Amino acid sequence: MRQLELLSPAKNLECGMAAIDHGADAVYIGASRFGARAAVGNSIDDIRRLCDYARPFGVKIYVTVNTILYDDELEATRQLIQELAQAGVNAILVQDMALLSEVEAENGERSANALQFHASTQTDNRTAEKVRWLRDLGFSRVVLARELSADEIAGIHRQVPDIELEVFVHGALCVSFSGLCYASQYCFGRSANRGECAQFCRMKFSLTDVDGVVVEHDRYLLSLKDMNQSDNLERLIGAGATSFKIEGRLKDVGYVKNVTAAYSERLNAFIRRHPGEYCRSSLGRCTYTFKPNLHKTFNRGYTSYFLNGRQCDIASFDTPKAMGEFVGTVKEIRGDSFNVAGVASFANGDGLCFVNVSRQLEGFRANRIVGNRIYPYRMPVSLKPGTRLYRNSDQEFESLLSRPSAERKIPVSLSLSATADGFCLKASFGTQQVATIVSADHQQAQKPPHENIRRQLSRLGDTIYVCEAVHVPDDFSYFIPNSLLTKMRRDVVEALDKLPRGAVKTTNRRSVKPMMSQSVSDASHYDYPYFYNIANRLSQQFYGATETTAFELKGGEGPLMQCRHCIRYALGYCVKHGGQRPKWHEPLFLELDDGRRFRLEFDCQHCQMNVYKGDKVK
Measured between alpha carbons, how far is 14 from 550 in angstroms, rounded to an integer? Predict the structure, then answer.
């Protein structure tokens, strides 16, 4: 039976525990340092507490150690990994190849208690060749590039079937292939490869041609919508993916609860349609106090990205901010209020927004709701009848999520039988089974005891278990005191708690040569160009490089970004895909308000757009 894993984010202990409560099979979280989100770090004690909370459900905990490392950080990183292993972490996500040798034990086998290595999406994983190479290095899992289509994922799985493939299914999208974005470092001295991305792609640009003609003025030309593959899980499963990753280590606990619950329900529905073929990789059944709704959680509008190949509507040129759910169109404006044509209901304090005639996102709060009329705190001047209205903050929904909103229990079946000199109580879930036997006199009951026995044994109370059924033979006619039933119930719960929750998998490292990059050919005249992200002596030794070459250390003349998103295609001017012929003279430039500009290269052979440094406009 093939196991499926829902992998949820956690910026802190609270979010991690909420992810588990709401249906995650695994949680990824950052440690105090060396994670690709430097703003959210967690202590070893908190990570240990999360591991302890996860273990009874068989939920895995993965820690992101997926930044490039400098020489003076290697020893601290080695110590961190040892501490994570001792805390009970199942795997770490890795970008820097220095870690492969930094945590090797003297006998040549991995130390750190069989801690698994997952190749982060920061290692730029988009071909079967790259995935096979990572497998041979000893990685047990590869996190694929977000840009891959279902067909491309299936092709990788066919060629390298013996490694786990993890895919992103929800959340924010980076416009550059992960691990190959240097724009933030170049512009602001904040490296995306060091967890300090300044979100260059969410900035406003003008698009100009070589003659200075403005093609687009002040638009968010690199800002993408958010990914939503909730309707495409079956296709991804069919392509060979086993882990489905929700982005969001900067998101709050409400986001984690809602999105985790929504995807957990989708996975469960898929499994019910394929009985005996698939199962979840962890234990437990969740119940919720709310109905999950992905449209009510932070989003910039949704896209399936490149899952079905290239499509136009993947970017959000008008705003990089949350739009939320569409709630209707403005119908009538009267003084300081208006009503909305639609079926949505509203509450005081709801956050509403719309795109005005200047193509800017404008937001406001609902101060008072009377029937179907909305009275804003301040009436937006540019709000007009017919305007499409969105809600990016739903007060009633957020109030539900602010309280305890889920309970996770492991369903168990109990079976009671008589032994020669007492009684035996068995408990089982899945293929696991435990039993407790007590010695007691066989006393005949005055009346059938089945109802009381079932009632007493099924009281699993505040344990993590819920009783699905109590099996008592029809001819069972013995009286058992409630005190003895209680003892048997407690003993069997204690035995259940001691059962192992999933086997530890190990992966052996093979002897392989460093592979040449799959990146653009413009920089291939370097032995090991900067997009290998070689920033320390161990990584340098791994590749056999003559020096460290990381952009963060030495800069470089190649692209600052490599993107599958193509502005020319998005604007309808890709001749290769049936668009009209461009009306400009290339090269094109992205230009910031301060005059800095960046040259665009359209690599049509690889269907890729590259962003380079450009001269500042004088």
Answer: 36
